[in-house]
Structure formats: structure tokens, C-alpha cells
Amino acid sequence: MSKRKSRVWMFFEQLDNDSRKVKCNQCQVIISRGGQGKTANTTSMNNHIKYKHPTLIPQLGSAIKCSSTDDSTKSQISAEELPKAVPTPSTSVSSEVSLSQKSQQNIEDSLTIHWSCEDLRSREINIAIGEMIALDNRPLSIVENTGFRNLIRKVKPKYNIPGRKYFTENIIPQLYEETKSEIRRGVMSAPAISVTTDTRTNINNKESFLSFTAHWFDDSFKYHHAVLQIKHFPETHTANNIKNCLEEIPTLWDIDTTKNSRRCTRQRQKCDESN
Asked: Which runs of consecutive H residues, i.e. helices, occur in 156-256?
């Protein structure tokens, strides 16, 4: 196999069963190289990074020319073909320093081997970012904000942060299922649970919602509580409608309401006997 000179290869892997195609390490998409052997090229790979993962372009240095005013231009320019910048007399010193720093940064980026999305270290950071989004009620778009990405690049240069779609389709659903399972185990193992509920009406659209919160103690007598559901409640707020809604929610969590009722009844009988 010939030596790969293009930096774009750091984001792709060649398929073992088809040398004409490569797989993107960022989104797992299969891309054709347009030929085989000497006829194959990296144009489609560069274009994929340019239009699907534009945040990775700085890591390629000057391998890709990206113009915000002309999206139809798709020519590939190597570092050797770029003309040397000639600074104007008024800004010669600052321009030379800026170009030197940019060149040094591109060299460092080209020598950095980034972790793949499936790397255990990447997955641990992805989970931590997902937890931050959930706990701090941050928008998913934060992972694509320039300041946040610059911070991550400084802290973990080898970590390549995915886009918001990856967090929406993978990390957030995973965290949801894990949290739901943990709450379910706590509710199911509790000797008894108490429930509080409340209704709220949005003043803008007049839509109402009913909350269902469970409270319980574990075997170590440690207090726990969790909001099991916030349910849309378009019906009138009559006692019968609220009762029907509250009876429906426990079945979604496999909560045996009759068992808890029997326990409460026994406890009340014991209290009556002691008195």
C-alpha cells in the first residue's frame, strides 16, 4: 500500500473488502473514492469533511479551501501549492507573527491522532457532556458552539466532539434509559411509596399538565423521590378525571397500588390497636 500523504486520512478507514471505498470515523458513512489504485482520489473525502463535518476543517490545515461566499467551489489545494503571504508594510510584523502561529498550530494538529467515536475515552467524555446537558438544562446546540468546542480542544486535544445529532440519537436516550431503570429498581424494591401530585396550566396556551411524584425510603432508611411522569391533562379538572389519570400512571411503572393500599391499611389497624 502506498504511503498516504493527505491529512484527510486521519478521519477515514479503508474498507478491507473494497479498496475503492472508505468509512468515515465520525459518522460511519461509506464513501467511494472514485476508482481503484492510482485512479482513486481523496476529493470525495475532503468534500465529505467540508460539508458534513466543517468543524474538522481546521485540523486539516490548508488541505481544504472553504469559502463561505462560494459553496460551489470544491477544488482541493495542498499546502505546497498555497502562495506565500506578502504582508503589507503597515501590518508586516503582526501578519508574520499570525502566519507563524497558524502554521505551527496546523503542524501540531496534523501530528495529533484523534480518538475515534467508539474509543472508551471518547465515550466517557460523551457521557459526561450528556449529563451536563441534562443536569444543567443546557440546549443540545452547546456541543456545536465555538467557545465550547475550543474549550474541549484545549482540555482534550485528542478528543473529537461529535455534533448535536449524535447526542440526540445516542447519548441522551442512553442516559434516559439508565436513569429510568435506576428509578424503577428503587420504586420496585421500596416497602411502600407515597405519591404527590399537582396540576399546572400554561398561561400562554392554556394547556394543563399533571405531575406524578413518588416518595420512598430504602432499606437503609434513606429518603428518595422521583418525578415518574408529567402528563398532558386536557380534560376538565374534576375529581373523577384526576382519579382516572392517577390510576393510569402507576401501571406504566409496574407499581402495584393494591399492595401499597393493603400495607397502609395494616399500618392503620396497628395504630388503632395500639391506641
From this structure: 164-166, 172-189, 239-252
- pLDDT band, very low/low/confident/very high, at 44 (cuts 50, 70, 90): confident
Rounded to an integer, the average pLDDT of 217-233 is 91
> What nine digits make up the cell of 161?
466532539
The band of 153, judged by pLDDT with boundaries at 50, 70 and 90, is very high
| pTM score of the predicted model | 0.50
Exposed, middle or buried: residue 135 (CB in 10 Å: 0-12, 13-18, 19+)?
Answer: exposed
Q: Cell 476543517 maps to which residue?
A: 57
Is the per-residue pLDDT at 103 higher than 80?
no
Q: Cell 434513606 maps to which residue?
A: 222
- Beta-carbon contacts of 106 under 8 Å, excluding residues fewer than 6 positions away, are 58, 61, 62, 79
Cβ neighbours of residue 93 closer than 8 Å, sequence gap 6 or more = none
Instruction: Compute the half-sphere exposure of residue 230: CA atoms within 13 Å on the CB side of its CA.
Output: 8
Helix 120-135 with 172-189: angle, nearest 10 deg = 70
Set of cell numbers at residue 228: 415518574
| Nearest of 149, 57, 152 to residue 110 by alpha carbon | 57
The burial class, CB within 10 Å (0-12 / 13-18 / 19+), for 49 is buried
Nearest-angstrom CA–CA distance, 192 and 217: 8
Measured between alpha carbons, how far is residue 144 from residues 49, 133, 150, 161 in Å? 15, 13, 10, 9
Q: What angle do CA 16, 20, 24 make, to 5 degrees?
A: 70
Half-sphere exposure of 258 (CA within 13 A, CB side): 0
Rounded Cα gap, residues 56 and 228, in angstroms: 40
The DSSP call for residue 169 is I
